[in-house]
Write a structure and sequence with these properties.
Helices cover 24% and strands 32% of the residues. The protein has helices spanning 22-37, 64-77, 103-110, 114-121, 215-221, and strands at 2-7, 12-18, 43-48, 52-57, 88-95, 125-131, 138-141, 156-159, 163-167, 170-173, 178-180, 183-187, 208-213. It is of the alpha+beta class. It contains five helices and 13 strands. Strands 7-6-13-5-12-9-10 form a seven-stranded mixed sheet. Strand 9 (163-167) and strand 10 form a beta hairpin. It folds into two domains: 2-77, Gyrase A, domain 2, CATH 3.30.1360.40; 88-221, Cyclophilin. It starts with a strand and ends with a helix. Mean pLDDT is 93; it is low at 217-225. It comes from Candidatus Chloroploca mongolica.
Length: 225
């Protein structure tokens, strides 16, 4: 693995790692926990992403040189976060129909039935790799290989809140009405982001997410009422 660090203004330091894969993500999660646990005045927050870690700090209490030295030492010793998430959040999903308008096209392009797409999507626990794009939007992976599709060639200008989507080896949930280019296969009533909640996001990096198909979604995918 290759590590690099660069400043982002006076009070932020970005640590990046390659390659971009699930092991790197587990290292970022573990490193974020270690930085958060440090008894080091000046560190404000450690925000993990797929293959990077953003550390915000107070330059009046902690110099960038000191922080770089601390992070370098942690990187040498860090062990990946456990492969199995400690917390799993269940998400109820209505698949197909108006809630998942792309499900028929997804199934056709993959050579599967709609019921098979649903069965594959609900067959495993996904890891929250990162929260990004919009507050509360979880990047969940890895997606089963049989469901791998690139993003839509033409993004939508507005995707309904709660839409469950897949693209580029990942699945995600739109927390609000937003533009987006992922394939919409279902929808949930789960509130992914609430600024008055602590934490405001329903899931955090490192959590697990398990999708459960509501009975109505299954009947719709099988051609029933």
């Amino acid at each position: 693995m290759t590590w690099s660090m660069q400043p982002l203004g006076e009070g932020a330091l970005l640590l990046e790692c390659t390659p971009v894969d699930t092991l790197t993500n587990r290292l970022m999660l573990a490193l974020a926990d270690q930085v958060t646990a440090l008894d080091l005045p000046g560190i404000e927050v450690a925000l993990p992403a797929w293959s990077s870690l953003l550390v915000l700090f107070d330059p009046l209490c902690l110099t960038r040189t000191r922080l770089e030295a601390v992070l370098t030492a942690l990187v040498r010793e860090v062990e990946p976060a456990p492969a199995r998430p400690a917390r799993v959040v269940d998400i109820q999903v209505r698949y197909g129909g108006e809630d998942g308008p792309d499900l028929p096209e997804v199934a056709a392009r993959l050579g599967l039935s709609e019921a098979e797409v649903i069965a594959l999507h609900t067959s495993q626990i996904y890891r929250v790799m990162m929260i990004g794009f919009a507050p509360g939007f979880p990047y969940l992976g890895p997606l089963p290989a049989a469901l791998d599709l690139p993003r839509r060639s033409t993004p939508r200008t507005a995707v309904p809140a709660g839409s469950v989507a897949i693209a580029a080896g990942m699945t995600g949930i739109y927390p609000d009405r937003l533009p987006g280019g992922w394939h919409l296969i279902g929808r949930t009533e789960a509130q992914m982001f609430d600024p008055l909640r602590d934490p405001p996001t329903l899931v955090v990096p490192g959590d697990g997410v398990r999708f459960n198909a509501e009975a109505q979604g299954r009947r719709g995918a099988e051609g029933g009422e």
